[in-house]
Design goal:
alpha/beta; CBS-domain; 4-stranded mixed sheet; 3-stranded mixed sheet; 4 helices; 19% strand
């Protein structure tokens, strides 16, 4: 199965540029109500994922940080606690499932590491849930037929 079936394209994703400010990252995450967003370099390459926790740790270390000061801190300078690995567009479904069990979303990159979108854990679970329901319904029909 092709993983493109699951993808939310870049145009529909919230992401942040590595050179964006801490304030911009906070505002984007607050606006979209996300706890993590992909970080891209100026050429669109995936460089990592930043989480609210990463941002909060920086703020905690600089406890007198004002929103104005947050404009001087670049997202690229924020240490990340977790490494969220992307998958290549050509990865197999088994690898996608393994990674999605550890991450809320999986960044997807092309052969040149250019970010093209994300696959949410919800999309993967929904797909398998629907497959399970279909299988369960067919099994129930077969059992009913055997009883008749």
């Amino acid at each position: 199965m092709n993983i493109l079936f699951f993808i939310t394209p870049k145009a529909e994703c919230a992401y942040i540029q590595a050179e964006a400010s801490l304030r911009q990252a906070l505002e984007k995450m607050e606006y979209h109500k996300y706890t993590a967003v992909p970080v891209l370099d100026s050429r669109g390459h995936y460089v990592g994922t930043i989480t609210e926790g990463d941002l909060l740790r920086v703020i905690k270390e600089k406890y007198d940080l004002s929103l104005h000061d947050a404009e001087d801190i670049r997202v690229s300078s924020v240490p990340r606690r977790w490494r969220m690995d992307p998958v290549n567009i050509n990865c197999n479904i088994e690898d996608l499932v393994q990674i999605s069990m550890k991450q809320n979303f999986v960044p997807v990159v092309d052969d040149e590491n250019v970010f093209i979108g994300i696959i949410t854990r919800k999309a993967v679970i929904q797909y398998f849930y629907e497959k399970f329901r279909k299988y369960k319904d067919e099994l129930s029909k077969m059992e009913q037929k055997d009883r008749d």
